[in-house]
Write a structure and sequence with these properties.
There is one protein chain. The protein is mainly α. The protein has two domains: 51 residues, no CATH class; 49 residues, no CATH class. The protein is built from three helices and no strands. The longest helix is centred in the last third of the chain and has 28 residues. The chain is extended, with a radius of gyration of 17 Å.
């Protein structure tokens, strides 16, 4: 696996964003999501459009995608129900619902 490099400026920006948005929070889950998002973005940014990965790498990425989609769908549904918006689908903002491809 290639080393993923970010500039000091990018690192500082990421740290500041995390501090601003998560002051006082000590959530392992949020830290894990941050790591996943950061590393996935850096890998996506460094890959060429037609670059091929090994089969096992593609399989792991596909598994991760399906796992994240399942968690996000459940999380979004729980928030939807918790907001007492169970009166119908007319309350759902479809512009904010982006899952999968």
């Amino acid at each position: 696996m290639k080393n993923i490099l970010i500039t000091q400026e990018q690192l500082n920006k990421l740290v500041n964003i995390v501090k601003e948005n998560h002051e006082g929070e000590d959530s392992i889950t949020k830290k894990q999501l941050f790591t996943i998002a950061t590393l996935a973005y850096k890998m996506w940014e460094s890959m060429d459009d037609n670059e091929q990965l090994e089969d096992w790498e593609e399989s792991k990425i596909a598994q991760c995608e399906q796992s994240i989609i399942a968690v996000v769908k459940n999380y979004m549904y729980d928030e939807f129900v918790d907001d007492n918006q169970t009166t119908g689908m007319d309350k759902l903002n479809y512009d904010e619902l982006v899952i999968g491809k």
